[in-house]
Write a structure and sequence with these properties.
Blueprint (H helix, E strand, L loop, with lengths): L7 H18 L3 E4 L2 E4 L6 H14 L1 H27 L9 H8 L3 H28 L5 H25 L5 H21 L1 H15 L17
Helix pairs in contact: 1-2, 1-3, 2-3, 2-5, 2-7, 2-8, 3-5, 5-6, 6-7
Length: 223
């Protein structure tokens, strides 16, 4: 009989909120000293931290459900913005161009974002789950950071290649890639003590510490 987890719904809702906020914030490119990155980078690394927490406590299968939920909600967000953008504005509403500039659907960016998210998140969850079994649950720091290094590499690379090659100069794409990658990994390292505490607390509260020894790791199996 499936377990009734107390906090899985809250974690799922927060995970989805982080994804939607990061995608909306990504419409602004920031510059801080040598680093140039999209605004979503400030909050998006939290999705990988939530991914680590989900996989470490509840296992890959539960994480897979949450990843697909996040993907579906992102797709819904894109669809809503596209429909709203296409509908005619009221005659006395002068902000149509502003709306389209910020929330208008740009096919390449949407495709890049969705592809990068699904590949990156599944790589992160897969690596963490496999390493947990191989290390018998030890070295959580190595597993959490290592899985993020792999997941964020695919996420950052896929997004920039699809969204910006041929649109932005290659040297700027490279600067954005390095800035994003360093920032995301750095955020994971800085927040690791908090992640470790949350994981330990959840394991105790949920009475769960799942090991994916017999898990079907196909990303398209949703149970």
């Amino acid at each position: 009989m499936p377990k009734n987890y107390r906090f899985i719904d809250l974690i799922t809702a927060t995970f989805v909120a982080v994804l939607i906020l990061s995608n909306i914030s990504s419409t602004k490119i920031l510059s801080l000293g040598w680093f140039s990155f999209d605004g979503g980078t400030i909050i998006f690394p939290l999705s990988y931290i939530f991914g680590d927490i989900l996989t470490e406590v509840y296992g890959y299968a539960r994480s897979r459900r949450v990843i697909w939920t996040g993907f579906a909600m992102n797709l819904l967000m894109v669809l809503v913005f596209w429909i709203v953008g296409k509908l005619p504005p009221a005659l006395d509403w002068p902000y149509q161009d502003s709306f389209m500039n910020i929330l208008g659907v740009v096919p390449r960016i949407v495709l890049g974002s969705l592809c990068a998210f699904i590949v990156g998140e599944f790589m992160n969850s897969f690596v963490l789950a496999k390493l947990k079994v191989k290390t018998n649950g030890k070295f959580f720091f190595v597993r959490a950071i290592g899985s993020t290094v792999v997941g964020q590499f695919f996420d950052t690379t896929i997004f920039l290649l699809i969204a910006f090659v041929g649109v932005l100069p290659l040297n700027l794409i490279w600067v954005i890639w390095v800035s994003n990658y360093i920032f995301k990994i750095g955020t994971e390292i800085i927040l690791y003590p908090l992640t470790k505490r949350i994981v330990a607390w959840l394991k105790k509260q949920e009475n769960e510490d799942y090991y994916d020894r017999d898990t079907n790791f196909s990303p398209i199996v949703i149970k």
